[in-house]
Each structure stands twice: as structure tokens, then as C-alpha cells.
């Protein structure tokens, strides 16, 4: 340690590498080199394995006690469970940006990738596929664990279940990108979590209590409601493409807000 | 080459950095000094593209930091050793940095070796001591083998061995022709490490010169004159004061003259026929020169007895003693 300083020359690195691809590679390394990532994954899997079958059982039970024999799509209880489980998964994406501010590592990150938009893009570009895979796997786990518990009410049409599972992956991925935008705009972990929670759960919960048609309309255009329509493949008030569009508008808005703050405020 | 052109950073009403014009040249260690709150860190953050100047510009090789395509290969910086995720290992931290700039994985192991952290590379960096954290910060600065290096208080928390290691590292980086810009509070350390000094106070440039010239310019650098003849001293002092020189006489046989050379005083004494027993330059230390320069720009003055002015008086007395 106390030996004379030797500042050996770095091997001539190929110019051109780095850039956006490098920034994405770095975000990938960062994501998998902290424990929080694993806690979020374990937590979300546990929540899904608990909520989806639980909701399935209670839906089947109420069918039984009310003497109705409407079938339940095997993936539908899982879609309802996503309302809770999503926060554990989204935390993963949120932490990718908020811990940078809480630990001060954002200064290192911006020294490496000084172009603000590239940094934001790299984080989103890593979160989206990772969360798509995680979301799809969670949906699969939720559906598989729920299906046998629906008994005679199970509607095991794979033509319905598979698109629902894939759309769950898409929704979770988009909510990850959404939270990264909010995180970049708000910076603090608590502030970001509160904001995301209010938009995805608090606001829809409050609006659902109202009986006015106008608030019902607003409710339809909130990201989590649109997400439910997207996953369930509803036709009313809009189809899957419409639902996807609504979610995408929210994602775009949060990313733009995050980008503006990154450009304007000092690190 | 680091260039600042009228760089200014204003926070609401307060001016942190005020029209700073600077060029930090390669091939030498440039020390960056100033009292707390003088704007040193803000200046470094502007150079590194973390803070946007309110007006003016901060350039690296003629470009703003954000315009560098592979910034780590041009500039390495240790601004804050704690700018990392405490749960991430030193190795992963450096690897992520390397990937952003297309730096090979091998270089990560290399810099860990240079700073002597290879044994703890896979440990959570949050468990590191202050000194180890500082070494990791230095490793990240060296990662891209840059020609320009910035260090903000690099010896903070290092043991004497580590302090010497950093000093030698700075010297060797500069001798390889790199630009080394280092801030510190430790004057004695700067006197050993730096070739050139930049001093700021309240965001304004106070000095941008070699250490020798900064010391020579200090009014505390004076010529001490001693003669056995008190009457002759009276005559000499009168003549010196007629020439508008600052003369301090605390002893009948002795005086301190600032602003004059040994030669001119020797000639004058010869003309007046005065016998001298001593005629020599008493150099201010870098610390004294610095204290004098920044006396008016100290943001957070300590209460007496250690206030800046009292400290200066003390220095005068020490010089005279």
C-alpha cells in the first residue's frame, strides 16, 4: 500500500465503445450488485404467491355461496393481485434512481455519463426488459398457483390466459419506466414512493368512492386502471391498444418531467 | 488543460463563485486553496459538469464536460469519496464506471492494485474506513488513465503513510505531463506537493502563481536588519521610511523592512556608513502568506483568540521574534 505510486497506462481502449451501450451495461452491473434488487424480487414473488391464490379462493367461494356459475379466467385473480404486488416490483426500478440521490452516487454516475438524457435512458432501458421478464414470471406464478384453487369455476382458456400474462409483463415494465421518470423528477425515495403510490393506488381508490360519472371517466384514464384493462383484455371502455396508449402517455409524461428536472437542476 | 472563463455560480442571492478566470496547465501540480465556503468545491463541480455555471464557462481541453464522449478517459476526479452506493463492492462500483466509458475490465483490477485495495475489492464499500474510501476514490479517478486529474481534499482521513503515498502519486502524475488540480486545507502538505497555487476567497481569485512568488509577495516576507548602534538604526529607519517602505521596529537594534530587497538596504547602509550585523530575508511560510491573503475573505471566523486578525498579529510577532 505504501509503495511508490505506479500509474500504469491503461490498455488502449477501443474508442467508440462506451456511449449509450456502455451506460446501459453499467446500469445492468449496478442493478445486480446491490442486495435491494434481490429483496424486491423475493418480496414480489412471495406477495404474488400469497395474493393471487387468496383472491382466487375467495372469488370461487363467493361464486359457490351466491350460487352463480360464472367462470373465472384463471389469470384474472392474478391481475387483481397485481394492484398490490406491483409496488414490490416497481420499488426495484425506483431504487435504481432514488438510491443514487440518497447515497450521493449520482455524482459518480453523472461524471461517467454526463449527458443527462442518456443516463435516464440507460436506466429505463435496463429496467424495462428486466421488469418485463419479472412481471411475466410473476404473472405465470400467480396464474399457475391460482388455477387449481378455482375448481369448477376455472376458465382455463389459454387463448385468454397467455395474452393476460404477457400484458402483465408489459404493464409492469412500463410502470418501472414510469417510476424512473418520477424518481428523476422527485429524487427522494420517500417522495417518489408516495407519488407513485398515490397515482397508482391512492387516487383510484379515492375516485372509486365517488358516484359522479365525471370522476368515473377520470378513473378510466389513470395508469393502474388502464393497466387492469390492458391485462384483462377488456373491451370497455377501450380495448388493449387503447389501454396501452393510456399507460404510454403516463410513462412519457413522467420521463419528460424527469428529464426536465435533470437538465435544470444541479446534481 | 482546464479553463475557466468568467465562471460564476450564484445561488439565489449568494455568489459562490464570482467571475473566475483560470487556466490549469499540464505537467505540474496546481494546489487549490481557500477558506471554507470560498467556492473551491463549487468550482470543481462546475469543471466536472455537475453544477451548471450561472454565467461564464468551465472547459476541459476546450470543451464543456458534458461534450466529452469518453469523459473518464480525459478527466479523473475524486470530489467526494462517499459518492457511491455503500452496499456495492468496490469492484462492482469501478466495473460499472468502466463500462460507461468502454474501459476494459482488466483496468479495474489494475487500479485496485495501484491503490492497494485488491484484497477488499469484493467487500461492501460501506464497510470501508475513511482512508480506504479515499483510496477507492483515487482508484476511480485513475480508472480511465486520464490526462487531467482533480482531487478535492485527497489526504482527508489518510494515515501519514497514506499522505506520503498520495503526495508521491500527485508528483508522479504531474511528472508524466498530466494536469493535476488538487484542493487542500493543509498548507504544509501543499508546500510539499504543489508547484503552482490558485487561491480563492469568497468566490474571487486571490492568487494564481508559483509557490515561491506567492511567498515572496507576502508582506510578511521581510528583510531583517540588525546593527549594534541604536543611533545609526534611527537614521536608517528614517531614511527607509522616507522611501515609503513599511518598517517595523520592535527592538532598538533591529527592524523588519517589507517591500525592499537585501541589496537596496545594504547599499543604503553603506552610503550612510552604518555597520550591520545582520541583513537577511525572513521568508513568510506558505501558511502565513495564505493567512494574510485570505484574512478578509474568511466566511466563518473563529471567535478570539484565534480570529484571523489576532492570528496575523501573532504571525508578525513570530516573524519578529
Summarize the model shown.
Chain A has helices at 19-31, 35-66, 76-103, 105-112, 116-146, 158-186, 189-209, 213-220, 223-232, 240-264, and strands spanning 72-73, 154-155.
Descriptive overview:
The complex is a heterodimer of chains A (267) and B (321). With 267 residues, chain A is mainly alpha-helical. Chain A has one domain (35-64, 75-264). Chain A is built from 10 helices and 2 strands; from the N terminus they run ααβαααβααααα. Chain A has helices at 19-31, 35-66, 76-103, 105-112, 116-146, 158-186, 189-209, 213-220, 223-232, 240-264; strands spanning 72-73, 154-155. In chain A, helix 3 crosses helix 9 and helix 6 (158-186) crosses helix 7 (189-209). The longest helix of chain A has 32 residues, at 35-66. The model of chain A is unreliable at 1-8 and 10-14 (pLDDT under 50). The longest helix of chain B is centred in the middle third of the chain and has 16 residues, at 160-175. In chain B, the strands form 3 sheets. A 6-stranded mixed beta sheet of chain B has the order 5-6-7-3-8-9, with helices on both faces. Chain B has helices at residues 40-47, 71-74, 90-100, 105-115, 130-142, 160-175, 187-193, 211-217, 230-242, 262-272, 286-294, 308-320; strands spanning 2-11, 14-24, 29-33, 55-60, 75-78, 148-152, 179-183, 196-201, 204-210, 222-226, 246-251, 254-258, 278-282. At the A-B interface, helix 1, helix 3 and helix 4 of A face helix 2, helix 3, helix 4 and helix 6 of B. Chain B: This is ATP-binding cassette domain-containing protein. Chain B: Belongs to the ABC transporter superfamily.
Amino acid at each position: 500500500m505504501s509503495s511508490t505510486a505506479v500509474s500504469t497506462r491503461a490498455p488502449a481502449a477501443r474508442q467508440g465503445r462506451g456511449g449509450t451501450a456502455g451506460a446501459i451495461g453499467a446500469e445492468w452491473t449496478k442493478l445486480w450488485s446491490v442486495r435491494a434488487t434481490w429483496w424486491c424480487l423475493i418480496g414480489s414473488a412471495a406477495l404474488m404467491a400469497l395474493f393471487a391464490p387468496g383472491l382466487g379462493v375467495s372469488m370461487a367461494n363467493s361464486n359457490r355461496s351466491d350460487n352463480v356459475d360464472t367462470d373465472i379466467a384463471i389469470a384474472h385473480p392474478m391481475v387483481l393481485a397485481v394492484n398490490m404486488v406491483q409496488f414490490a416490483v416497481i420499488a426495484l426500478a425506483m431504487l435504481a434512481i432514488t438510491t443514487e440521490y440518497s447515497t450521493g452516487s449520482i455524482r459518480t454516475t453523472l461524471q461517467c455519463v454526463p449527458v443527462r438524457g442518456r443516463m435516464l435512458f440507460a436506466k429505463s432501458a435496463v429496467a424495462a426488459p428486466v421488469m418485463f421478464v419479472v412481471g411475466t414470471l410473476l404473472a405465470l406464478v400467480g396464474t399457475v398457483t391460482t388455477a387449481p384453487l378455482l375448481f369448477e369455476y376455472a376458465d382455463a382458456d389459454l387463448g385468454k390466459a397467455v395474452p393476460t400474462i404477457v400484458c402483465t409483463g408489459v404493464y409492469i415494465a412500463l410502470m418501472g419506466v414510469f417510476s424512473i421518470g418520477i424518481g428523476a423528477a422527485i429524487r427522494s425515495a420517500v417522495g417518489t414512493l408516495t407519488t407513485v403510490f398515490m397515482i397508482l393506488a391512492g387516487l383510484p381508490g379515492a375516485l372509486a368512492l365517488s358516484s359522479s360519472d365525471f370522476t368515473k371517466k377520470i378513473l378510466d384514464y389513470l395508469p393502474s386502471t388502464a393497466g387492469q384493462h390492458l391485462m384483462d383484455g377488456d373491451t370497455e371502455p377501450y380495448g388493449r391498444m387503447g389501454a396501452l396508449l393510456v399507460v404510454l402517455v403516463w410513462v412519457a409524461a413522467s420521463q419528460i418531467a424527469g428529464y426536465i428536472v435533470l437538465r435544470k437542476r444541479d446534481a | 488543460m482546464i479553463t475557466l472563463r468568467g465562471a460564476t455560480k450564484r445561488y439565489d442571492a449568494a455568489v459562490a463563485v464570482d467571475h473566475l478566470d483560470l487556466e490549469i496547465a499540464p505537467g505540474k501540480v496546481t494546489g487549490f486553496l481557500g477558506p471554507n465556503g470560498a467556492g473551491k468545491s463549487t468550482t470543481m463541480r462546475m469543471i466536472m459538469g455537475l453544477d451548471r455555471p450561472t454565467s461564464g464557462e468551465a472547459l476541459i481541453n476546450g470543451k464543456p464536460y458534458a461534450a466529452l464522449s469518453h469523459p473518464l478517459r480525459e478527466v479523473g476526479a475524486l470530489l467526494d469519496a462517499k459518492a457511491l452506493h455503500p452496499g456495492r463492492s468496490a469492484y462492482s462500483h469501478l466495473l460499472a464506471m468502466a463500462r460507461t466509458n468502454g474501459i476494459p475490465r482488466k483496468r479495474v483490477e489494475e487500479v485496485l492494485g495501484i491503490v492497494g485495495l485488491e484484497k477488499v475489492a469484493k467487500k461492501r464499500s460501506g464497510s470501508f474506513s475513511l482512508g480506504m474510501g479515499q483510496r477507492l476514490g483515487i482508484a476511480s479517478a485513475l480508472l480511465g488513465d486520464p490526462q487531467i486529474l482533480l482531487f478535492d481534499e485527497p489526504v482527508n482521513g489518510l494515515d501519514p503513510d497514506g499522505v506520503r503515498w498520495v503526495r508521491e502519486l500527485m508528483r508522479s502524475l504531474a511528472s508524466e505531463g498530466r494536469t493535476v488540480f488538487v484542493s487542500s486545507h493543509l498548507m504544509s502538505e501543499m508546500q510539499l506537493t504543489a508547484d503552482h497555487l490558485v487561491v480563492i476567497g469568497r468566490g474571487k481569485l486571490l492568487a494564481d502563481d508559483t509557490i515561491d512568488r506567492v511567498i515572496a509577495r507576502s508582506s510578511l516576507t521581510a528583510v531583517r536588519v540588525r546593527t549594534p548602534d541604536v543611533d545609526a538604526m534611527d537614521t536608517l529607519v528614517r531614511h527607509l521610511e522616507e522611501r515609503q517602505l513599511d518598517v517595523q521596529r520592535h527592538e532598538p537594534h533591529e527592524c523588519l523592512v517589507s517591500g525592499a530587497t537585501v541589496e537596496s538596504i545594504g547599499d543604503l547602509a553603506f552610503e550612510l556608513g552604518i555597520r550591520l550585523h545582520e541583513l537577511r530575508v525572513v521568508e513568510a511560510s506558505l501558511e502565513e502568506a495564505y493567512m494574510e491573503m485570505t484574512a478578509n475573505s474568511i466566511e466563518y471566523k473563529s471567535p478570539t483568540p484565534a480570529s484571523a486578525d489576532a492570528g496575523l498579529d501573532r504571525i508578525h510577532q513570530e516573524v519578529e521574534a
